[in-house]
Amino acid sequence: MFKDIVVAFDGSKHAEAAILTACDMADRYSAKLHVVHVPELHDQAIAVGASAVVLPVDEEALQESGQTMIKRAEQLAKGAGHTFSSTDILPGAPGDAILASATEKGADLIVSGRRGHGQLKGILMGSVSQKLASSADCAVLTVK
Ligand SMILES: Nc1ncnc2c1ncn2[C@@H]1O[C@H](COP(=O)(O)OP(=O)(O)OP(=O)(O)O)[C@@H](O)[C@H]1O
Ligand SMILES: [Mg+2]
């Protein structure tokens, strides 16, 4: 049933669980596995007198942190006996970038964590997992 599975990885515990679940689904359906990460270094600001100046995001640092994240995802998949058919580090808003990647891969399943690194513990789902579940053109599995 599932031939191409995209798993969204942000390095959080929920996303680690998503990788392991995606590996299990790939086993069951003999599917290809794709991983996508969207680096999220937030703008930094420095105080200048009474106001603040936003420093530009360092693109190189962004790519580097992306590579580290993909390596971690690859380690987890390897532990479950898998290698990814593709690894993507994409710019932009995470939800949109993950959806675009899923379309590009012709994915029939997206696996994500229920939460990520966000601090709003009272809310059931993060904004990215919510976006994926509500807007994807394919099935979505949200993992705790
Ligand atoms: N930048 C990202 N790159 C790849 N996958 C991501 C990214 N951000 C989130 N995800 C995926 O979405 C899942 C849910 O994360 P989400 O960001 O929705 O929750 P949160 O961080 O707790 O909340 P919020 O970001 O809304 O404060 C993660 O476990 C991961 O699978
Ligand atoms: Mg988040």
TrEMBL record:
InterPro entries: Rossmann-like_a/b/a_fold, Universal_stress_UspA, UspA. Signal peptide: none annotated. It holds the Pfam family Usp. Residues 1-144 form the UspA domain. CDD domains: USP-like. PANTHER family: STRESS RESPONSE PROTEIN NHAX, UNIVERSAL STRESS PROTEIN UP12. Belongs to the universal stress protein A family. This is Nucleotide-binding universal stress UspA family protein. It comes from Yoonia maritima. The lineage of its organism: Bacteria, Pseudomonadati, Pseudomonadota, Alphaproteobacteria, Rhodobacterales.
